[in-house]
Design a protein that fits this description.
With 352 residues, the chain is of the alpha/beta class. The relative contact order is 0.12. The longest helix is centred in the middle third of the chain and has 17 residues, at 205-221. The chain has helices spanning 8-15, 19-26, 37-50, 56-62, 83-95, 109-121, 168-181, 205-221, 236-249, 260-272, 290-294, 306-322; strands at residues 68-73, 99-104, 127-137, 148-155, 163-166, 188-192, 227-230, 254-257, 282-287, 300-303, 333-336, 340-341. It has a 6-stranded parallel beta sheet, sandwiched between helices. A 6-stranded mixed beta sheet has the order 7-6-8-9-10-12, with helices on both faces. Residues 56-63 have low confidence and may be disordered.
């Protein structure tokens, strides 16, 4: 059995004063109520010796705050890739003297509803509802009954909850700009999505928005990609297969892959064809997956800012909690910039 928790009554008995006096001293109100310094000193010393700990949740509730927020996700908590999202949320919460309650649903709506109820029952000050990858979600029942933020997710139905998303359109522009600035004007192929904005994996907001950003830069520079290969999944084998199809018809000068796992597969196909990166073919990608730093040469990629996304969600949540009334209508979408990580996979070329 565990050790019995030391109570206020235990401290009062050992000190020789009332429980009320002990409670006032440990709450920092001794001076206000003219409790002597000697009594304060004895109470605090005895409490420390006995190992007394205040019930911080109850103290916070009496002060009008629980100092806790909920973080509910589909699979973020068990994902190695998006774990930084939770670390960012934790750090932002700690900076505001608050703690996080975590829950993971596996994408089950009933589990989501139950977890939301459990968090509201514990009087959390707000809830961050996070998705592993950017997608449209059904807002769990009860989520909008108090301050809440959607992280990496857009609501499937009308909702006024604020949203925090990575700036995928800006990321598409950054990736395309790398190739344009390096002088690439011909022989560019897309791997993973396209040619149309609807030619993307199911429910992939990132793919569509990345394509929009890419086309903005290419259109402004007068560049048109030679081909675009849609892939049902963005795994290495898909990138390998798509690059092989390109090589059977074309001699590419640059590949713009929609994520790093596709790029990894592209590297293998290029190597088997006797082509080197970047001397023969430049490669640019997205996500800053650990693969990007493992491959040689190191991959140039636009990073998903998981840590910053988590921190921003908590910041937006606290701002929402401070508002007396939630604005109605379209949700406010907060975009977090995706930074470019330059590797050695792009070679400057002379314009032909």
């Amino acid at each position: 059995m565990g050790r019995r928790r030391v109570t206020l009554a235990d401290v009062a008995k050992a000190t020789g004063v009332s429980t009320t006096t002990v409670s006032l001293v440990l709450a920092g109100r001794g001076r206000d109520l003219r409790i002597s310094e000697e009594v304060e000193r004895r109470v605090r010393s005895t409490a420390q010796e006995l190992g007394y700990r205040r019930k911080t949740l109850s103290v916070g509730l009496r002060a009008g705050r629980s100092r806790t927020i909920g973080f509910l996700s589909d699979t973020v908590a068990s994902s190695l890739l998006a774990g930084a999202m939770i670390r960012g949320a934790l750090e932002a919460a700690h900076q505001r003297d608050s703690m996080l309650f975590f829950g993971e649903s596996g994408g089950d709506p009933e589990v989501e509803r139950t977890l939301v109820e459990a968090m509201r029952d514990r009087q959390v000050e707000g809830i961050v509802f996070a998705a592993m990858y950017t997608r449209v979600v059904g807002v769990p029942e009860g989520l909008d009954r108090g301050p809440a933020v959607l992280l990496n997710a857009l609501p499937a139905a009308c909702s006024s909850l604020p949203v925090v998303l990575p700036d995928e359109v800006g990321a598409g522009r950054a990736a395309a700009q790398v190739l344009v600035e390096a002088g690439h004007r011909e022989g560019i192929h897309l791997v993973g999505a396209g040619p149309g904005l609807d030619d993307v994996p199911p429910n992939s907001i990132a793919a569509t928005e990345r394509l929009v950003g890419i086309r903005q830069v290419f259109g402004g520079a007068g560049v048109e990609e030679v081909s675009a290969r849609w892939c049902p999944k963005w795994m290495p084998e898909d990138g390998y297969r798509a690059t092989g199809e390109i090589l059977r018809r074309y001699r590419p000068r640059a590949l713009l892959c929609l994520n790093d796992r596709l790029a990894f597969g592209a590297y293998q196909a290029l190597a088997e064809a006797g082509l080197s990166v970047p001397d023969d073919v430049s490669v640019v990608s997205f996500d800053d997956h650990p693969i990007a730093s493992w491959v040689r040469p190191r991959l140039t990629t636009v990073a998903l800012p998981h840590h910053e996304l988590g921190a921003k969600a908590v910041e937006v949540l606290f701002a929402a909690a401070e508002q007396r009334s939630r604005p109605r209508g379209a949700p406010v979408v907060h975009r977090v910039p995706m930074p470019l990580r330059r590797g050695e996979s792009v070679k400057a070329v002379r314009a032909s």
